[in-house]
Fold this sequence. Notes:
Elements: H1 3-52, H2 55-58, H3 64-68, E1 75-81, E2 86-91, E3 108-114, E4 117-128, E5 131-140, H4 143-195, H5 210-261, H6 265-297, E6 303-307, H7 308-319, E7 326-331, E8 337-341, H8 342-359, E9 363-371, E10 374-381, H9 403-409, H10 415-425, E11 429-435, E12 439-447
Parallel strand pairs: 7-9
Antiparallel strand pairs: 1-2, 1-5, 3-4, 4-5, 6-8, 9-10, 10-12, 11-12
Helix pairs in contact: 1-4, 4-5, 5-6, 6-10, 7-8, 8-10
Amino acid sequence: MKIKTKASLLSFIWLTSILISLTFIIYYIYAQYEKEEELETLQFTANQMLTHISPLELLQEDNNRILRKYLPNHAMIRSLDLSSKVINQAANTSELAVIPPKHIDTQESYSQKLNDQSVMIVRSPIHQGTEIIGTLEIITEPIELDQSLYRLVGIIGIVTLAAMLLSLSASFLLSKLLFLPLSRMILTMKEIETSLAIKKLPLNRKSKDELYQLSETFNHLMERIEMSMKKQRQFISDASHEFKTSLTIIEGYTSLIRRWGFENMDLHMEALDAVHDESKRMKHITYQLLELAELEHEPTLTFSSFDLVTLCKENIQLLRPLSNKEFILLPSESSMMIEADRLQIKQVILIILDNAMKYMTHHTHVYLSKTDPNYCIRIVDDGKGIPTEELPFVFERFYRVDRSRSRQTGGSGLGLAIAERIVKLHKGTIQISSVPHYGTEVIVTIPICKTTNSI
Ligand SMILES: Nc1ncnc2c1ncn2[C@@H]1O[C@H](COP(=O)(O)OP(=O)(O)OP(=O)(O)O)[C@@H](O)[C@H]1O
Ligand SMILES: [Mg+2]
């Protein structure tokens, strides 16, 4: 059963049970009140009779006429002597005669059932001075009261039925209104499931209730999925473009060799060089992609204590044979012990130094300092710089400022993305600033206190 139907049925049952119990209570209280009033009226009649008619007249035989004056509708009045013998009797219905006459010493009034019909009985003692000499009995069939109670039952029944119908339709309408956004959400989700296309829910509700928040959260989720899908598509297209370019070059040169290579040694060598370069490039990109994937999905850092100055010296040493340009290391202290993942930090510094080496003119300065709460690595080169409008994108994967030049320099645009990821895993920061034609500055900060390796 749908939750909508369940909710409406539940609220209907709840409302109906309240309504029916209320109806019964109202009916019972009203009937009791009316019966009491009827008995009081009879009692009043009995008192009137005892005041206006003398006791002797009441108990004088064949004096029925005197009782008839006070006789209500569907009633019987009797005067009895001390032995409960009927002396006088006046009645406009014969059914009540079956009720046995009864002498009493104190006044009584009650109702009882007679052939499934309620009858009301009032008995009052007849006093002669202080002495009781007989009983006055008034018995009625409260037909008007019964009729009015029947009418009340009819009215209450119709009203209850109407209220039940109204509550049923109202609870169905209410739950439909309440669950409409949910039904829409389910429909949208089903559409997404079948078409695999991102869809959003309409947010035109005025009240910012839980369902609105649910729809809003759902839309945010959809936006994020859409963004991540876009990024993924972009990444796949960029990665395949990188490989496609290299593969096209390799294919071009190999087909050239197949046609002319064995006759022309120079062409043969050129093709071999090109194929070698492109294979190296593809290997480099593949390694970088694997590294990124690993950093993205299984970010495990192995923390150890090491000297940052020594690490930078090692890195510079590694690059020196590859370039005739100058790297100047300027640490604020001769030794700076840091607690981090040594290999990963080495990788970050290498990525930045590699960039500096590719683009610098004469020299690159590497400043190391320790300002609580961070270690700061500042790498400043005097290269051609990066245009200001390109700066926000350099950390994106496959982003290269000058695509044609980058092919010559061998860049794939993944270095800074990897560096940023590693720094973030260390809960540090990486910033790049540049003045075109003057140089570029990259600042990396790593917290002094060891941080957890998850982000
Ligand atoms: N010091 C720098 N001077 C000038 N441009 C820079 C510098 N550092 C980075 N860039 C620009 O930012 C781009 C992105 O750098 P990144 O290191 O991510 O990629 P890459 O160097 O091209 O390739 P690789 O993945 O091999 O590092 C570079 O292509 C380059 O255009
Ligand atoms: Mg690089």
